[in-house]
Amino acid sequence: MAKRMSAKTARNSFSDLLGIVYYSKEAVIVEKRGRPVAAVISMEDYAQLLDAREERLKVFDEIRAMNQDVAPEEAQEDADREIAALRSETSIRSGKD
Question: Would you say residue 39 lies in a domain?
């Protein structure tokens, strides 16, 4: 679980904040008036987030290329049908009916 720190503490102890993230590889959530406003994460975590984002974008590009000749309405109907099937499958597996 990520540590939490007030913005004032983060500002006053920035070196300590960086040390926590660097050495423990733990994320720190910076809060202002009790509300999360930022997350400080390790470069390794940041690189993983970027890689995951790129993978998702590749999937979108592949789907777009496969469906370039499909009418938007037909694509929406197919997507709606698949989403409904996945939701139904998920509810059956979790015992919800």
Answer: yes
